[in-house]
Amino acid sequence: MRDLTMLAPEPLISRPFVDVDLEELAAESARLESCAAGDVVRWAWERFGTGVFVAASFQDTVLIDVAVRAVPEIEVVFLDTGYHFAETMWFVERVRERYDLNLTMMQPLVEPDDLWQVDQNECCAIRKVEPLARALAGRSAWMTGLRRSEAPTRATSPIAHLDVGRGVVKVNPIATWTDLDVSGYIADNDLLEHPLTHRGYPSIGCWPCTQPVREGDDPRAGRWAGSGKTECGLHGWPDPAQRR
Hints:
The protein is an alpha/beta fold. Helices cover 32% and strands 10% of the residues. A six-stranded mixed sheet has the order 3-2-1-4-6-5. Strand 5 and strand 6 (168-171) form a beta hairpin.
């Protein structure tokens, strides 16, 4: 078993909370509920400047398209776990070229191994959670494509709030969007689509832990199928037992 304290960067331990008034943040989040997603991105940029970035999984390009339309120079961060599908890595390059992205690739501090076969939670911690912590070092906020309709664990996600565990503000510009909103935006704006999307993968993570799903199944049913695991740790751990 790896000692994660050896991998965690110093900012995880010593970096103080971002200077933000929680009442003001809650009020802004409530106001942004009725705003367009692009307006949420602009608010975050005006509030935090280069202290905010967009974390993108490249499952689709909806948030990327929304963000770069609002702020063309905004930084996009991709967590390259070392286990992504070849199609995902190909897609990242196509998207980078289309938008001329200000793209940062974050890699884990360890080489590929077989940890995913015996401890998926620790694998996610090493290959996703820890690289995100390094990306957030010295930052004030991050933006995600999290949506309330994706899973029960995300149903109450605000537009903006303090990510207490990381000491920064977390902004979810498309939190209110439904699956229909997403598919409509993709069609209306002729967005690039991940090549696995139409091969039974509505939710795409690392290849060892992602399976295709049957039509009509929950879109995230193929993630860590049969394990009881529903989150990688970037957006919380719904079951305390998952953290052992």
